[in-house]
Inverse folding.
């Protein structure tokens, strides 16, 4: 199956997306699975899934040989305030998946030449294979976003297991106008780097003041238990300000990793409605 090349993003679409804030999550799933805590989290995730979801995942593996927990290499999620959200998946056997979806028919042409296929259990979502091992998932009414979602993936450093980029945009709330960009990078083993690009030097100074206030609140006796566990890491973080840049490097204590993984799995289970 020939996969057409993605068309360049239209300037008008880029301008509209830049008007509001956006959040991008990028996860190196291969590196994540290699971490010691991955088995613990995978167990928690499996427990959070309903019996029906577990059955569907087993069927997907039977039909395509693909297991998300084993084979997915990279996950990128784009969540904008204005404009369409999308998910990009790397490491899929897209031809096999498209072959299954095509049995039900209903393929729709995408402006850049790809074909969008409805997901059987999510009729408002469309699966678009953009290469032999990559796909984009968008809403039915957002097929024009495939061109934006199909562009070159960001280059990551070898030690970066996950990354979050927040762009406030020109239409952001007043408290976000201190920022031009906020980046978080993590190695999955406890090291987190936060880089804030202030609107100007004064904005960076105000961001530093607010960071110090967060550190003080985390150490308060009235703070939530999850926040209190992070207080030592926040208090010992190294902070460097250079003009409008603010770099914060912190390390989550190793003895907190397990508790954080369990708390995340518990929240996931609550969100999916699975008993624990």
């Amino acid at each position: 199956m020939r996969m057409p090349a993605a068309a360049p993003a239209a300037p008008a679409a880029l301008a509209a997306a830049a008007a509001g804030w956006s959040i991008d999550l990028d996860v190196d799933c291969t590196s994540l699975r290699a971490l010691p805590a991955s088995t613990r989290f995978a167990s928690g995730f499996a427990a959070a899934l309903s019996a029906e979801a577990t059955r569907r995942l087993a069927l997907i593996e039977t039909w395509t040989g693909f297991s998300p927990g084993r084979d997915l290499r990279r996950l990128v999620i784009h969540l904008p305030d204005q404009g369409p959200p999308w998910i990009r998946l790397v490491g899929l056997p897209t031809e096999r998946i498209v072959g299954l979806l095509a049995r039900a028919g209903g393929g729709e042409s995408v402006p850049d030449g790809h074909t969008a296929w409805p997901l059987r259990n999510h009729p408002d979502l469309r699966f678009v294979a953009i290469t032999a091992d990559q796909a984009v998932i968008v809403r039915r009414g957002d097929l024009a976003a495939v061109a934006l979602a199909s562009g070159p993936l960001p280059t990551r450093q070898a030690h970066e297991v996950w990354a979050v980029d927040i762009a406030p945009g020109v239409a952001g709330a007043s408290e976000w106008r201190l920022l031009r960009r906020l980046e978080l990078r993590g190695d999955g083993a406890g090291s987190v780097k936060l880089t804030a690009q202030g609107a100007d030097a004064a904005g960076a100074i105000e961001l530093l003041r607010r960071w110090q206030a967060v550190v003080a609140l985390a150490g308060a006796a009235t703070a939530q238990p999850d926040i209190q566990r992070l207080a030592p890491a926040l208090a010992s973080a190294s902070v460097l300000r250079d003009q409008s840049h603010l770099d914060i490097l912190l390390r989550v204590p190793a003895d907190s990793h397990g508790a954080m993984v369990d708390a995340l799995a518990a929240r996931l289970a609550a969100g999916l409605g699975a008993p624990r």
User: Anything to note?
Assistant: Residues 11-149 form one domain.
